[in-house]
Design brief:
3-stranded antiparallel sheet, mainly alpha, 388 residues, globular
Length: 388
């Protein structure tokens, strides 16, 4: 592996291609916040603003300012997005809407917990960059609301009839593994420790199932048992693999090498499980009993799945020297750069069909914003530097 070459490949792609794209194309100079629905060339095709993507972009530019270089235009970009969120993104009590009109009028109620988690991340990272106490307070209070909503994240907007089939999902404990470290500077040590302990237990002892061959499943019954239903059989390989680099980071932070070893093992199990043996790439959704999934997009190849996998593999190699991680990294790297990087215009495609052909040539939309591509490029770049 030519580390030096790869370092510049990931760094240059981030700083000379992807970051300038979002800086130039996505900022709404008239109303504040960001456009995320951008076509192949970066033209706006829809002006609705999705809170979780707004939060992710505030976080991204704050993180780059804090960790890469103190560029004023990065900080300005983050602050204008945060001010838009502060003014319009919630109901006055930090219940964060799902989406707004361009001007900031609420469109969809605060049913989605990820609006809250990414608002927490955004204001936490920006408070580091600015020292602004109000931003820190917003992050801390929103985090408290996230913890309070854990047992019923959708609250009164939960469509499930209570008591018949109570299901809990992998996504919240997974995100909390990352979020706890993100806002560590704002938390009491005991709150941090309790959150980390609970998340590690959920991820590694509830959703990770040794009896199913060591895979991670997406949903379990409230008591932690398996459910033989669409939701209960669902596997999202990318989700599980992404969570493993969060666990590796926790292993480093807590000085617990056994967590790192376990995360590496699960990463390799999940990539073997999710890899499309016929066309290459990682499936989006699978069923643990090989029954048809209810998600019709099950066989698509998605940008974030592959980028998050690259992070987990390279971290696994850097932290343990595992040769299998390195071999898989090369394979996924080749697939990802060939399939998702647009050779003509900046930023990356998000959606390929099973055969690896571009399905939608958008650069951003309702679900894809300024997050996985730049965060992934940054994480891989920095990890490769450590190896070098």
């Amino acid at each position: 592996m030519n580390c030096k070459k790869l370092v510049s490949q990931y760094r240059d792609e981030l700083l000379n291609n992807v970051v300038p794209f979002w800086l130039e194309k996505s900022q709404d100079k008239e109303y504040g916040g960001y456009f995320t629905c951008l076509d192949r060339e970066g033209n706006v095709f829809d002006t609705d603003k999705f809170i979780w993507l707004q939060g992710r972009q505030v976080w991204m530019f704050s993180m780059l300012y804090n960790n890469v270089e103190k560029r004023q235009e990065w900080l300005d970009c983050a602050i204008q997005g945060a001010e838009f969120l502060k003014k319009y993104g919630h109901d006055g009590k930090l219940n964060w809407y799902f989406s707004l009109t361009r001007e900031g009028k609420p469109l969809v109620e605060p049913y989605n917990i990820f609006s809250y988690t990414f608002a927490t991340m955004a204001f936490g990272q920006l408070s580091k960059a600015t020292g602004n106490k109000e931003y820190a307070e917003i992050a801390r209070k929103t985090f408290d609301i996230v913890l309070a909503k854990r047992d019923n994240p959708k609250g009164k907007w939960n469509k499930a009839h209570p008591g018949t089939r109570d299901i809990k999902s992998f996504s919240l404990p997974m995100i909390l593994c990352n979020l706890a470290l993100e806002i560590e500077h704002l938390l009491e040590p005991e709150v941090l420790q309790k959150t980390i302990d609970e998340c590690l237990h959920e991820v590694l002892e509830v959703f990770y199932r040794p009896e199913l061959g060591g895979i991670v499943i997406e949903n379990v019954k409230a008591d932690g048992s398996l459910s033989d239903t669409f939701d209960g059989r669902l596997i999202n390989p990318g989700h599980a693999i992404e969570a493993m680099w969060f666990i590796m980071d926790l292993g480093v932070r807590l000085n617990r090498p056994e967590l790192i070893e376990k995360a590496v093992k699960i990463t390799l199990t999940m990539i073997e499980y999710g890899w499309d043996k016929k066309y290459g790439g990682i499936f989006y959704f699978m069923d643990r009993k090989d029954a048809p999934t209810q998600q019709l997009e099950w066989d698509q190849k998605l940008w974030w799945v592959h980028i998050e996998t690259l992070i987990s593999l390279i971290k696994g190699y850097q932290l343990t020297g595992c040769k299998e991680c390195l071999a898989w990294f090369k394979k996924v790297h080749d697939y990802t750069w060939k399939g998702f990087k647009d050779p003509k215009y900046p930023e990356w495609w998000g959606y390929l069909n099973r055969q690896g052909e571009v399905l939608l040539d958008l650069k951003g939309g309702k679900w894809k914003g300024c997050f996985h591509v730049p965060r992934g490029l940054y994480q891989v770049w920095k990890t490769l530097e450590k190896i070098e």
